Amino acid sequence: MATQLLLTAHHHQAMAIACERGMWLPLPLPVEKLPSLFYLAALAPAAEAITALAEIRWFEPWSGELWLPMLGRLLPLPRPVPLGDRDALSGWLPGRSDQFRLLDLLPLLEAPQLSDLVCGKPGRGGARGPGRAPRRARRVDRARRLCGTAH
Predict the structure, then answer these.
(1) d(CA 49, CA 47)
(2) Of 25, 35, 52, 89, which one is least surrounded by beta carbons within 10 A?
């Protein structure tokens, strides 16, 4: 099971405040995805890049189908991932704090920009081309270096 990122929307200081508190907002997450969700990123409306990730330590059940992500450290990325083509991301990016997307972490960290990954453009970080699968060990190593620890 690939390590996944929970991508959501909020104001520019929300992740830092949430990491200090130790929790995010309750979200209607699919229960089968919880074991693979280890990081969270929240984008402000004017954000141009994913610049940091918050560690997700565990999930607490909330009311009904909602889950409360319990957070650890805020991990600044040494190489922010630019969002890229906003037109291509229109309608795909979460626009409110109760909306989210789930992304595989390693391809995201390798992508030149998020729009390439979302649109499946071939090349680094885009859709898989021939010979991409054997590089898994190097990608895991890269994720550990970029995020401190990979799960």
Answers:
(1) 6
(2) 35
Q: Which residues contact 151 (CB under 8 A, 6 or more apart)?
A: 3, 38
Structurally, the chain folds into a number of domains equal to 1
Overall residue count recorded for the chain in this entry: 151
Contact assessment for residue 52 and residue 77, using Cβ atoms and an 8 Å cutoff: yes
Nearest to 40 by CA among 24, 28, 21, 54: 54
Task: Please give the share of the chain, as a percent, with pLDDT higher than 70.
Answer: 80
Whether 98 shows a pLDDT value over 60: the answer reads yes
Query: E strand or H helix at 88, and its extent?
Result: helix 86-89
Residue 71 CA to residue 132 CA, distance in Å, equals 32
Token output for 9:
């929307």
Give yes or no for residue 75 having a pLDDT over 90. yes
CB-based contact 143:112 (threshold 8 Å): no
* Domain containing residue 128: 4-147
